[in-house]
Design a protein that fits this description.
Blueprint (H helix, E strand, L loop, with lengths): L5 E6 L3 H13 L5 E4 L30 E2 L5 E2 L1 H22 L10 E3 L2 E6 L1 H15 L8 E3 L2 H7 L13 E6 L3 E3 L1 H14 L3 E3 L4 E7 L2 E8 L2 E12 L5 H8 L8 E12 L2 H4 L5 E3 L13 E7 L2 E11 L12 H4 L6 H10 L1 H11 L3 H11 L9 E14 L5 E4 L2 E6 L4 E6 L7 H12 L1 H14 L12 H14 L5
Parallel strand pairs: 1-2, 1-13, 2-10, 6-15, 13-21
Antiparallel strand pairs: 3-4, 5-9, 6-8, 7-8, 11-12, 12-13, 14-17, 14-18, 15-16, 16-17, 18-19, 20-21
């Protein structure tokens, strides 16, 4: 490829591209990096602060991360794995703040306790079992359980004020939780990338990828016409737009993947006297028949220095894969290799379809009633409805070829083709750093061993489990908490 070839092209200016670009610049400072973004600024889609709940997912309150075992026990390994991944992400942020490559941590992350909350005797028993299963794990050693309304009221008045005394309730509380403004973080990372020589192309939607020798030719629209840019390596981090681009590339690793778009909405209040009653992020338990993505949560948010509460998510549906996308997105994503898995997912996930229909047709009164199940004293006049981001749930294939609806983050890497991409949604941004390190390992296997020393300067625990009470782990956790201005470890 020619001398004008880009070493690393990042498609989409969201948290994933910003994280990968930052890692690349530290590992290979002589490589040139270019970012192609369709919109007017970075972080306007999924990474936007108002398009997500801003939870630094650490497994402290997300009850859908637990799986019921046949004998009645609970498998909490997913919560532990995500907790470990967020510890890696925190180390990376801490290193950049300490080096002055990110602004003061309070610009993008704030200490906000996490709390799991349930009502009803059966759910209280579940939460106690969930707490007991996690309490023995070092990362969860400070998780506190209570079924005393007075104690829960100390954690959040909003959850108990106006609630009937006869209703059993319980909560599990972790003081070291976080609220993250991923929009502010993304913009800060990209500003630092550009300051170190990366080029950011705004209003440059990528329309196609074509093999060109060992690299790729990227077709993209510009404010004045059509252009092509050669690149040695391409990362597709375009959120809901990633599936179509990966399909257009022709890499075999993208075969069979489909996408199911889900819209989101939140109720929001900025009324200070209401916001003060709930200084935590509280996650509930999804009702029977409701998928995990429908678990209710009442989140304290800090965005641009302003505090608010969000409640939701309320799901909706339209065929667009991005808020700025086309209503033809879903139909354009259908291929011979994924139509079978997509049809089988539709057949096998009737509960999800029923849930979405119910959400789409829900009246404002029903939406406020859902809020009052967590916050009984909520007043209609204090809340407004806002649109959140689009989530494209990944449809993959199991060993028999049937479709499987995946609710996590799917990394697609084609090492021999110098191309990688990311599909899926939550916990997404919270696990950006370990996911991007895994991408580096899979896509640049011949170089990765030579990068480990530099990576450990950014992530001291690289290659080791953080779910341990050993001195080295506790020292890392304490140092990160101090640098980021967070509570506990």
């Amino acid at each position: 490829m020619g001398s004008g070839t880009v070493d690393v092209a990042l498609i989409g200016a969201g948290i994933m591209s910003a994280t990968l670009g930052t890692l690349i610049q530290h590992l290979e400072p002589d490589w040139n990096v270019e970012i192609f973004e369709a919109l007017d600024a970075p972080a306007l889609e999924s990474s936007n602060a108002w398009h997500n709940a801003g939870t630094g997912h650490a497994g402290f309150c997300e009850l859908d991360y637990a799986t019921r075992l046949p004998g009645g026990g609970l498998d909490v390994s997913k919560a532990i794995a995500i907790g470990e991944q967020f510890q890696v992400t925190r180390q990376f942020w801490s290193a950049l703040v300490a080096r002055g490559e990110l602004p003061t941590a309070s610009r993008f992350v704030n200490p906000t306790p996490h709390l799991a909350f349930v009502a009803g005797a059966e759910n209280v028993a579940f939460l106690r079992q969930w707490h007991d299963a996690l309490k023995e794990e070092p990362l969860f050693a400070n998780l506190h359980f209570s079924d005393d309304p007075a104690r829960i009221g100390e954690w959040s008045r909003a959850l108990v004020d106006g609630r009937g005394a006869a209703e059993p309730i319980a909560a599990a509380y972790e003081a070291s939780g976080t609220d993250v403004d991923y929009g502010a973080l993304t913009r800060a990372l990209i500003d630092a990338l550009v300051a170190r020589g990366a080029r950011l192309h705004l209003r440059h939607p990528v329309t196609g990828l074509r093999r060109d020798g060992e690299g790729w030719m990227i077709s993209h629209r510009t404010p004045t016409g059509i252009a092509t840019t050669p690149a040695r390596f391409v990362f597709v981090g375009a959120g809901g737009g990633s599936l179509r681009l990966l399909q257009s590339s022709g890499i075999p690793e993208a075969n069979g993947f489909g996408g199911f778009p889900v819209s989101g909405r939140f109720l929001r209040t900025r009324k200070p006297e209401v916001v003060r009653t709930h200084p935590v992020k509280a996650y509930g338990k999804a009702d029977k028949g409701v998928p995990g993505l429908g678990a209710p949560h009442l989140d304290h948010r800090t965005v641009d220095g302003e505090d608010s509460l969000l409640f939701g998510p309320f799901a909706g549906w339209d065929p667009r894969f991005l808020k700025s996308g086309s209503r033809l997105d879903l139909f354009r994503s259908i291929r011979p290799g994924n139509i079978g898995p997509m049809l089988s997912v539709a057949k096998d996930n009737f509960d999800l379809l029923k849930y979405l229909v119910g959400e789409i047709t829900a009246s404002p009164d029903k939406q406020m009633s859902a809020l009052r199940r967590l916050m009984p004293s909520a007043a209609d006049a204090d809340w407004e409805m806002i649109d959140a981001g689009k989530r494209v749930q990944v449809i993959g294939r199991n060993a028999t070829g049937r479709g499987v609806l995946q609710f996590g983050t799917e990394l697609v890497v084609s090492p021999g083709n110098n191309l990688a991409g990311l599909l899926g949604a939550s916990p997404g941004a919270s696990t950006a750093v370990p996911v991007m390190i895994r991408l580096l390992q899979e896509a640049f296997g011949d170089r990765f061993d030579g990068w480990t020393e530099a990576l450990r300067e950014l992530v001291p625990s690289l290659g080791r489990s953080m779910n341990t009470g050993e001195d080295w782990s506790m020292e890392i956790r304490r140092a990160n908490a101090e640098t980021l201005g967070l509570a506990g470890v």
